[in-house]
Amino acid sequence: FVALTMGPYPKDWIEPYREFTGLTAPIQNGEEVAKAFKIAFTPAVVIVTKNSGKAYLKTGQQDFKRLYEFLKTAQG
Question: What's the Cα-to-Cα distance from 28 to each of 34, 48, 52, 71, 75, rounded to whole Å?
């Protein structure tokens, strides 16, 4: 799991964000990924399945149950 931004971000932004959200995943510039998947809205979840290599995209805020259902559907 990795958190991606939609472009460059200020380095002094990460620690306050982590403290506020409790996020421990790596945060990286995802500008190229966003372009590749044509992501125009956030939040966005991209799942790339190991078995098929296909990518699935879901945008908008989701609760855990909906994300889990999305994951299971993507996995087949």
Answer: 12, 17, 25, 22, 25
